[in-house]
Amino acid sequence: MQEFLFIYNAKSEYSSLKSSLHKLLSPTTYACNLCKLTHGFFREKKAWRVFRKRNAAVDMKFLYADEFEKEYASKFGAKYKYPIILEKTGYELEVFISTEELNKAKTLTELIKLMEARLN
Fold it and tell me: How many structural domains is the chain composed of?
């Protein structure tokens, strides 16, 4: 089974209300394109939910940057820029979709097409 880590460029203590307000009031300074693409102001976007359900055989884990760094600190530490999507391969992590690729995606449809192309 494939396993992926989706790591947001945000801290876990950054509440969803603060995050939503930031996206609404100052979208150009919002630092996490992964969050911007997959979530609306208050919840996960329907198209993303449908994509995840359609790919239920793929294990997807979603972490804030500080959660990832805490859980994987011993081996992977601050090796990555965020947001990023990593694939777990045995005891290693490999970049599945880079920060640069995520930041280039302008729409959720682009992200989903990129994910599907790489999954197949």
Answer: 1
88-97 confidence digits (pLDDT tens): 988 889 999 9
Read off the pLDDT of each residue in 7-30 and give the average, rounded to a whole number.
59
77 backbone φψ class: left, alpha, beta (φ>0; ψ -120 to 50): left
The predicted pLDDT at position 113 comes to: 96
**What is the rounded distance in angstroms from the CA atom of residue 59 to the CA atom of residue 21?**
30
State the residue range of the domain holding 28. Answer: 3-119
Quick one: how far is CA 9 from the chain centroid?
Answer: 8
Q: Are strands 59-64 and 92-97 parallel, antiparallel or unpaired?
A: unpaired
CA distances from 50 to 55, 63, 78, 109 (A): 9, 20, 32, 12
* pLDDT (0 to 100) of residue 77: 56
Neighbours of 43 (CB within 10 A): 11
> Residue 49's pLDDT is what?
96
Tokens of 5: 């880590």
For residue 41 the two structure tokens come to 């102001």
